[in-house]
Every structure is written in structure tokens, then in C-alpha cells.
Amino acid sequence: MVASPSFGALACLLSLLLAVPSALAIPQNNPAPSPSPTAKSGTISATNLPLPNGGGTVTANGTISVGGSKNSTTTPTNSTSPPPITALPTFSLTPDTPTAKRARACTADSTFCVTLIDHGTVVTFAIDAPADAKWLACGLGTKMDGADIVAGYMYDGKFVVSDRKGVPDHKPPTVDAKQDALPVRGGMDAASGRWVSSYQRMKSTGDKDGDLELDTGKPVSLIVAYGAGDAAIDVAANKGLDHPEFRAKFTKHKAYGKLVVDLNDPKQVAAASASATSAAAPTPTAGAGAAATGDAAAKTGSGAVSAWRADAARAVVVTVAGVAGAMALVL
Length: 331
Known about the structure:
By secondary structure, the protein is of the alpha+beta class.
């Protein structure tokens, strides 16, 4: 007698038969369903990325937090706009005196010469370069990257100095948000036939972002450069920004060099005393920052006194000669 299968065995056999057609079916090329367009929360560590349509926030370290209101918009933190000028020089120009210690050094080819005048807490920089200069820059340091730079140029008919910071890869120096240099005189110097940039700065400016302390008790390493031609400088490029006078744009320099000024070197001290352009720190006047062009260049500061004395002496000689001639005719 054959035993009949149980109900459980029949149910198991039936499920196997139903599974066979499904296993043998040919797969269809149906595309996978699209993910939900809703962005999930998270952060993207990147910069210069557009915010998603769903909104988001940019954190201080440049990360973008996805999510939030669809109507929210945020400007990336690394905007290309230059930073605002936050501070101007707070010290006053110091008059030059015969007792002020000074020294003068030039590059090997005499393209650049720099005179330093030590007034105590303030130092005068007097730089001169060829007459075709349109801008003239001098920086503390031995290389462009990290140098504490001051550039001198003409802006709307006046001599201006701009405090800047040197950057790597031969890029133009960036404008320092805290300006720490005051113009003394600049422009074409008629007496020497050289383009002059003279300014003063504190030995210690207190600006920890890019400024270097100046120790005149030791040799001072400097880099210098100038640009020539009308295209060498663009003073109108940033006139829509705050303090545009400090923001002129420069093209690549025509010449550059390095030198060391040592106020303890007797030869450099003698060179400073003998140089006409070293006397570039006159008693401050309302026009101390004006361009030194034409006759005004030769008669700025101590040069003005010398020129006045020479003119007065010639006038006395002419007057005496005229009186003597008149007396001779009468007699």
C-alpha cells in the first residue's frame, strides 16, 4: 500500500513549480529609478562651488552645508573683491636733521639707489631709479614672497605710496589692509634726473599681517623694482573701491634688484652725505606728498634753501654791480 503525500509536501512542491518560470525569465533593460531630487544634509569641503538649488550655508572654513530654505542665498567666502582698507597711518612725518644717521647703497649697475635715514622710531626711505619710471617699489626682505613692500607712484597729480605684501609665483603684491607709510616726496627730480620715491614708516608698525620690523642697527636687506611706460600702471582700475589711491595696478617690472643698506658702514654713510637725493626728508608741509616735478623737484626740502640762497646771492651781485656802474657814470 502506497502512502499518500502529506499536505505540507504538496505545498512545498507547488511553490517550487511556481518559482521556475520566474527564474527562467529574460531580464528586461529597464532603467533604474531616479533618486529623489531632495538633497540630504551634509558638508562639501570645497571652494568656488555654486550653492545647490535647495539652498545652503557657507561656513567660515569654506565648507558648504547643503539643505535649508530654498529662498536662501549665500556669497562664497573667497570672493575676488579685495579687502577694505581698515587703517591709515597714525604717525606724523619727522623732519630731517643733520644729526640723523643715514646710509646709501646702490645696486651693482646703479639702476637703483636707496638712502635710509634713521629718525629714532621712524625711518625715511629715499629710493631713486631711472627717469622713465612710472612706479617704484622697495621691500624689506631678500625675495618677493613675504616682502614688506611700499610702492610709490603718481595718482591724480599727487605722489602716493601704497603699503603692500609680497606674494609667491611672481604675482603682483597685494594691498595691505592696514596702510603704514606716509609720502614725503616723489616723482621726477630735476636736480638728479632720476625718479624718486621717498616715504617714512615706523620701525615697528604693530601690523602683524605682512609687516616686518625694521632694525637699523643691522644691515637692512631690500628688494627694489620699477615699471616704465604708460601701460605700466593703471590708477583707474579700482576707483569704485574704498581708498582707490592705494589700489593702482602694476604690470611686470622693467627692472629689479637687491641691495643691502648698512648704517654702520662708513662708505655708505659717506655716500649718503654726498648724495643730493638723500636729503629727501624736508620739514613737513601741507604739500609734502605732492609730486616733485620740474623746478619744484629741485627746490623741495633742503634743496629749496640751497636754491633760494644761490638766487639771493646772484641778485646781490647784480645789484652791487649796477650801483657801482651808476656811480662811475656820475663821477
